[in-house]
């Protein structure tokens, strides 16, 4: 290819510009460069701004249309090539400066990376430690939670057992109360039984005894009936004898009186002053004696009236009175003499002569006869009296035997009564025994139920004790888990604290470097801005001088190829 001479400076300038632009392009697009200077974010907490700057630079649309620039370059003329070269050299100079900064930052960048890595690692470690801490917290908490859950279950179980135990105890108390009542009843029955047993008799014996009693009662009743008949008979006989006795007694008294009267007469007529003769009738003697007494009385009466001497007069009156008395006796004798029966009639027959013939010898004979009769009647009376006495004795004996039998009967009836009561008691006893056996059966059943309830309650109590032991063990486990956890957490926290402290140190170092880098970036940015301005100016120059160099077209193609190769 041929290149005209005047075109040589232009071509040179273009080549330089091309170099500048490629370098610039390379620089603006190099991520490595950027990332070298500005390492990727270490932590959310650390702020990195380098990327912004980088982006800002890349965004510059200086080389948006390389083709257009190329075309414009063709229109450049010599006149402006020197200015372009000047500007190009300035840009190169600036790029060199930038290269210097780059080299510096490269060097420092490694150190920076080292610190950054340290910081990152520290942060990583811290993060890991934090996670580990969390993990420990989580895991230990999980263990504790598990144990606590187990404790809750145990508590629930305890509560259930306690409930069951309470219910069982309630049931047990209720049953015990019934049992106690039953025991009281049983005790009462036992007392009753004892009481009844004391009067209990063998039933066969009781029957025999009852028969015996009935027999005895039968015979005694029979005998008593006979006795009563005999008593009635005795009473009747006594009555008969009594009647007889009364009769004979009457006769006896009469005869006795008669005998007495006769004896009085005999005694009277035996008086001396009567001068009675054996063969003279008594009635005559009495009449004579009465006349004598009457004369004497007349004389004495006169004498008494005449007598002056008081003493003699008194004597006379006394004598008169005696005579009067004698007269009276005489009269009595006369009367009783007249009373004497002179006719025989049955056994009361007396004197066999008349009153006019009745002499003293008759009287004596009569008294003898009367006495004999009296003796006979007396003897009869004595006999009846004896019989009566015997009968009375018999009645008395009969009555007394009857009385004895009556007492015996009463005793037998009493025994029968007692026997009935005893029989009743033995019936009661057998009833009581039956009842007792029944209640005893109930008691055994109830006792078994109570025992069962007690067993169940004890079982619940054992279970509660077991659960409580488990509970306590779990509590101990939890305590030890908590201790262990606290220890681990403390250790971890200590580690973490040291790490954070280390990280802060690392961060300070890092930040120092960052500051340095930031300064470099600022510088680089300034250079960038300058280059940008220059490139813009170059662009505007190129625009201003739209030179059309058709032969540059080839060159342009070549350049594009070169750029692509880059
Ligand atoms: C990047 O450009 C934006 C505007 O496009 C600007 O606000 C920002 O400050 C720039 N950042 C740097 C580091 O130059
Ligand atoms: C940070 O830790 C993660 C794992 O947690 C690991 O994959 C990564 O490589 C670590 N980074 C550094 C710089 O140690
Ligand atoms: C801790 O446990 C919770 C749930 O209990 C879980 O969501 C979390 O991921 C756990 N963290 C670790 C670090 O294991
Ligand atoms: C225990 O009994 C009470 C009532 O007596 C009841 O309210 C409660 O739920 C019961 N608890 C258990 C654990 O069975
Ligand atoms: C009652 O007594 C009789 C003999 O006295 C005897 O044979 C019988 O076995 C007794 N019965 C009872 C129940 O004791
Ligand atoms: C009753 O009188 C009769 C005849 O005198 C005699 O045999 C019998 O033993 C008497 N009975 C009693 C119970 O005294
Ligand atoms: C005793 O019992 C018998 C029959 O068991 C009866 O005939 C009798 O009247 C009773 N006696 C009394 C006093 O109850
Ligand atoms: C037993 O005696 C009681 C009173 O002590 C009485 O009530 C009951 O009826 C009597 N039973 C018989 C079978 O006699």
Report a brief summary of the structure.
With 566 residues, this protein is an all-alpha fold. The chain is built from ten helices and no strands. α1 packs parallel to α5 (78-198) and α5 (78-198) packs antiparallel against α9.
Describe this protein with a few key phrases.
binds 2-acetamido-2-deoxy-beta-D-glucopyranose, transmembrane helix, 0% strand, membrane, 10 helices, coiled coil, transmembrane
Describe the global form: rod-shaped
Quickly give the structural class.
mainly alpha
Computed Rg: 92 Å
Name the hetero compounds present.
2-acetamido-2-deoxy-beta-D-glucopyranose
Give the ordered list of helices and strands.
HHHHHHHHHH
Describe this structure in words.
- Helix content is 87%, strand content 0%.
- The chain has 10 helices and no strands.
- It has helices at 8-29, 31-37, 50-59, 66-74, 78-198, 203-269, 282-306, 310-339, 360-544, 552-565.
- The chain is rod-shaped and about 260 Å long.
- The model is unreliable at 29-67 and 547-554 (pLDDT under 50).
- Bound molecules: 2-acetamido-2-deoxy-beta-D-glucopyranose (8 copies).
- One 2-acetamido-2-deoxy-beta-D-glucopyranose is lined by residues 223, 226-227, 230.
